[in-house]
Amino acid sequence: MTDIFDDLQAEYEQLDAVLATLTPAQWSHPSAATGWTVSDVVLHLAQTEELAAASIRGELAGPRNRGEVDAMADSAVAAERDIAPADLLARWRAATAFMPAALRAHPKDSRLTWVATSLSPATLATTRLAEHWAHALDITGPLGLAYPDTPRLRHIAWLGHRTLPYAFEVEGLTGGPVRCELTAPDGEVWHFGDPAAPSVITGPAGDFCRVGARRLSPADSALKATGPHGPQALTVLRNYAF
């Protein structure tokens, strides 16, 4: 895969190019995130980037209970949602400005506190890319704006596949090895997992990442899952670490 820290920067820049063009009416438009406007989504991204920065500085409190995460995010947004769009965009830009370089500079074998677990700097960068990509869809979809899939989805697909054992555990299910053969936006086929695994997921990488982000149901996707654990893997798939 290409460098995750460079690709995180590229994802920020793709979203920035969208946000820079929004009108006041678009900032206040409902997003695809239930109960949140476009401004609320950007505020959430700024707040979570600030939490990532706190983690890098060693200032983030220990892992949270998974059940608290959504409520905490809603409360944090509600507490600050009166920020003007120009100020909000400046805050998000400031929060993202140093993140790729700061994560790259952190010892690669270290662990950083994040939500309900701890992650390596590269994996935290991957989760930040995944969250920005998913929320970019929440912003651009309702506004009818383009947000094309890119090869950066490979990082997100890797994260979804890599965390399948964790996803099975969170759901209280007994999983098993699953391999993925996913078609990239440029037609390349990405392979994840043991080639001999009896369970297989095939189809568009964009659909796989959207299912993992809970932006697309497995039934509405073009993915095919076979074997003893393939279909179940699609129901638990997640591109985030809680």
Outline the biggest β-sheet.
4 strands, mixed
Q: Regarding quaternary structure, how should these chains be classified?
A: single chain
CATH class wording of the largest domain: Mainly Alpha
Radius of gyration: 18 Å
**What is the count of DSSP helices, taking H or I runs of 4+ residues?**
11
Give me the strand/helix succession: HHHHHHEEHHHEEEHEH
Spatially, the strands of the biggest sheet line up as 4-3-5-6
Summed over residues and divided by their number, the pLDDT gives a mean of: 94
What is the CATH T-level topology of the largest domain?
A: Four Helix Bundle (Hemerythrin (Met), subunit A)
* Number of strand elements: 6
Shape: globular
Class of secondary structure makeup: alpha+beta
Q: Name the poorly predicted regions.
A: none
Pfam families: MDMPI_N
GO molecular function: metal ion binding
Organism: [Actinomadura] parvosata subsp. kistnae
InterPro entries: DinB/YfiT-like, Maleyloyr_isom, MDMPI_metal-binding
